[in-house]
Task: structure prediction
Amino acid sequence: MGYLVTMTRTTAGPAHGGRTPAGDTAPWMTLLFVSVGYAMVIVDTTAINVAVPAIGADLGGGVSQMQWVVDGYVLTFAGLLILGGSLGDTFGAARVFRLGVMVFTAASVGCAVAPTISLLISGRIVQGIGAAMLAPACLALIATAYPDAVRRGRAIAIFVTAAGSPQAFGPVLGGAVVESLGWRAIFWINVPLAIIALAVSAARRRTPPPVAPPGPIAWTGHIAICVALFSMTTIIIEAPRAGLSSVLVVVSTVSLVVAGVIVVRHQRRHRSPALSRVVLRSRAAIGFVAVGLLLFAGYYGLTFVTTIELQRRVGLSTTDTGLTFLASALPIFLLPMLSRPVVDRLGSRRTLTIGMAAGTAGALVLAFGAVDDPYLRLSALALLGTGVGLSVGPQIDEVLNAVPTSVAAQAGALLNAGRQLGTVVGIAVLGAVYAAPGGTVAACIVAASILSLGTVVAALIYPKRPEM
Result:
């Protein structure tokens, strides 16, 4: 699937502040190690959900602590993504990627041997730090390794497929791993993956250091951005649980306002602000980041609600529920490669619009009785998965197309941050709607509305290609 097939930049490399690395041993080696590294991030985002009950039975702890096993990782990951992107653009994406893999792996080992729930949560937070370092670097490294637009499009299709496989099959495989080997195996899996990623990365011919690296990192701005993202995510997670008047929500709201003011002042006054002005001034980049936020909000929010509905009211087991979601998982896994001719013919923006529309249709089918009918249910989930499978790659394409490669890591960080926030917002909003009198029907209609808004935004954006 040619996600980057229309990219015009053929020089400049994000791994070194806009300079092309000389003599990459083989581009496929870069593609291999970034795909394996990013797969670790996705595995720990998806498979951990099915392990939570087993973790609670083994280590103890209440519902709140179980939620923080998941949320501690999400909060840290989302909060530090922008900083991770800037580190990649400043010090070299390859260097930051390797450091991120090492931090993530060390934290995974800590999680695997954690004797208490508190230490496990601490390990998950450190995992989020490593993930925030390596995730933004992946797209920057691919864009640099594949200067030819057609080959780069194929590489992105392979990368998205590799990243989508644990995302699609993580819940099913995670359940099998937990049942056969125990919940700690979820974290031990990361060790061999990290060894592969680091070994292949080390085998790649070294690239020269930046000739004229960017200026020093604007730590004040980055700290304020981290606080703002952390506070925003905390409010979204905790407000439905504890209420708007809880101490944590109130403190987070105040922190968000203060950090927001600092960010605005910093962006206006600093010569080299934390958030690149090139990225922020690109309406296309910001618009397509918003599309990704809406896509992930609709999809993951609807998946969360449907999972509860299938188990509580329809009466499916955990295994049967996981198998049911293969209807959406298979298109997410297969379409990045199979739909490449469609992207080549129609372009990324049109394909993205079609995908968002398909997802909207799937949500509407679920809204009107599909949950109770097994055939309609599978059809609706397949339509929803088709929408995601058609949309994810072209969204990456358009975000990267809208900015120079010198800020590709930061653009990738913003893209990932939008997706993480979208996931948290979708689960919180649709979960609250589901708990209200309207129930499943209302939640599906809200999801369809979110996805339809993303369809409109994608259709109306006419990006201008940056001059490199």
